[in-house]
Amino acid sequence: MTKKQAIIIGAGPAGLTAAYELLEKTDIIPVIYEAGGSIGGISRTVDYNGNKIDIGGHRFFSKSKKVVDWWKKILPVQTHPAKDDIILNRPFVINGDIQPEEADPEKSDKVMLFRGRISRIFFMGSFFDYPVSLNLNTLSNLGIDKAFKMGFSYLKTKLMPVKKQENLEEFFISRFGKELYETFFKDYTEKVWGVSCRSINAEWGEQRIKGLSVSKAVMHFVKKALNAKAFLDQSSTETSLIEQFMYPKYGPGQLWEEVAGKILEKGGKIYLKHEVVGIKAQHNRILEVIAENKDSNTRFSSSADFYFSSMPVRDLIRCLNREVPDNVKDVSEGLLYRDFITVGLLLNKINLQNTTSIKTVNNIIPDNWIYVQETSVKMGRIQVFNNWSPYMVNDLSKIWLGLEYFCNEGDELWGKNDEEFKKFAVDELVRINFIDRSDVLDSLLIRVKKAYPAYFGTYERFEEVKSFLDGFENLYPVGRNGMHRYNNMDHSMLTAMAAVENILNGRKSKENIWGVNSEKIYHEKK
Fold first, then answer.
1. Same domain (yes/no): 323, 283
2. 119 vs 237: CA distance, rounded Å
3. Residues 388 and 435 in one domain
4. Same domain, residue pair 211 and 155
5. pLDDT tens digits, residue range 427-486?
6. What angle, rounded to 10 degrees, do the helices at 168-176 and 186-193 form?
7. CATH code of the domain in which 388 resides
8. Is the peptide bond before 131 cis (omega within 30 degrees of 0)?
9. What CATH number did the domain enclosing 516 receive?
10. How many beta carbons lie within 10 A of that of residue 91, not counting itself?
11. How far is Cα 458 from Cα 483, in angstroms, rounded to an integer?
């Protein structure tokens, strides 16, 4: 008897999780078609002359024990000090479950490191805590007058709350007050999305910031100061305040490459550079997909019992051969995306000094990433890969940065050729006195289309598309682009897990899949 099959569109976290779960829990054989030439989607690791880039930055943290245990099953957490721990003679304490002996990052590559999270805001030539803390450093950098205005504005919002929170500006003001919003949120958010905060649905704030507020940030600071040991348990901590996380020795792509290997070992199939260009449907079922081999430019059809899609919703609707209602087409075509460019920059040194108490190799700044709030540059964030993992940098005497830009395909930034853009990025770092041009050693540019689904355009009518897609009983949209939702990596995994559970249990409704990353489900107690 022929085993059932599932066709999975996309080899990002959602698609790979779905394939792995199918092989672990069912007799269904997954077949993955990935349009690109690599594993992991935006969660891949790019290797350039031994220096590794994590596109977008991926902390391996989740409030879901199921996800955390899944990660540990693929890559065990380190049991011995990492390279930077050894160099700095930094105390290392085994955290969590006992792991196998081979989980020593100096002896084995298949290791998940335990990392400290440091991310700050660079604004007015100074560093501010992220999220913004009401401490002496903030008061000193801002000045008493500005800090007083922020405090008064916040209290005013608490006494006279913003009743209507339909757009992101209203959401931010309700959480932080108008003065704090205009200083630390407005310009940066509009740099990321390219539109006014008033044009962005408030749901984006709920997705990304959830319950974070000034009062919670203050309570978090007090809790940390009073009880450092208890602070290791972060299950009830707001995601934006998490200070420790796991991280694969060679970046996020390492984990997903391990998962892909296990899928192949168990009988699954993965076809890279195979783009799904057509989908045949009849009544309430998907019958087959048409895939194109991008190397040979040949097309072929392939059928299965179940279909998982993490391709952009707009592309999915365009691929359908059957008649799509006009309203669904209109909404789908109006869904917008934000594209992404990162420049890897290898340097002898940077100009900024480590003024914190945190020890680092060569005493560089300790940040994993930095939010660039300066309005004089278009750069959004800076990653310091040395601090993600010492194994991400070929030579630890150098500094390996990732300069991140948000843009739209076809706009002025996207239109620059690679060499122009790399020069432009260096110019911006020099302008804010982050580096000297003479310290630049090498660079690499990476472009990512449709990196971030946008909460504007026709998004407010997305329910019409969702209802249409839910009408196909054997189709499961999963992941960030598959659901047009700005999910974290763990959320994308949970959508795939929920879809597989539905198949296993014969559940027809997909509401539990769409419910992932809602307050009730995501904050489920462990």
1. yes
2. 16
3. yes
4. yes
5. 999 999 999 999 999 999 999 999 999 999 999 999 999 999 999 999 999 999 999 998
6. 150
7. 3.90.660.10
8. yes
9. 3.50.50.60
10. 7
11. 14
- Residue 47 maps to a domain: no
Both tokens assigned to 116:
């400290």
Return d(Cα 458, Cα 336) in angstroms, integer: 8
- For residue 400, give the nearest of 42, 53, 43 by alpha carbon: 53
Q: Which residues contact 185 (CB under 8 A, 6 or more apart)?
A: 172, 176, 197
Residues 419 and 312 in one domain: no
pLDDT of residue 221 exceeding 50: no
Among 6, 495, 497, which residue's Cα sits nearest to residue 289? 6
In whole angstroms, give the CA distance from residue 234 to residue 243. 8
CA 501 to each of CA 29, 488, 509: distance values in angstroms, whole numbers, following the listed order: 15, 20, 12
Q: Tens of pLDDT along 183-209?
A: 888 999 999 999 999 999 888 777 666
pTM: 0.90
Residue 403, burial from CB neighbour count under 10 angstroms (0-12, 13-18, 19+): buried
* Contact criterion met (CB below 8 Å) for 493 and 17: yes
Residues 6+ apart with CB under 8 A from 286: 279, 280, 307, 472, 474, 475
Rounded Cα distance between 192 and 405, Å, is 8
Instruction: Flag whether pLDDT at 271 surpasses 90.
Output: yes
Under DSSP, is residue 199 helix (H, G, I), strand (E, B) or coil? helix
Answer positive or negative: Cα dihedral of 236, 239, 243, 249: positive
Instruction: Using only the alpha carbons of the chain, give its radius of gyration.
Output: 23
Say whether 487 sits in a helix, a strand or coil: coil
Same domain, 360 and 401: yes
3-state SS assignment for residue 17: helix
Can you say how many angstroms the Cα of residue 213 is from the centroid of all Cα atoms in its chain? 21
Note whether 346 and 444 are same-domain residues: yes
Residue 155 lies inside a defined structural domain of this protein? yes
Tokens of 89: 């003679």
Residues 112 and 208 in one domain: no
- Structural domain of residue 15, as residue ranges? 5-42+255-334+458-522
Contacts of 411 (CB under 8 A, 6+ apart): 194
CA atoms within 13 A on the CB side of 456: 12
Same domain as 151, residue 214:
yes
230 within domain boundaries: no
**For residues 152 and 156, what is the distance between their CA atoms, to the nearest angstrom?**
6
Tell me, yes or no, whether 404 lies in a domain.
yes
Report the C-alpha gap between 24 and 353 in whole angstroms: 49
Q: In total, how many domains does the chain have?
A: 4
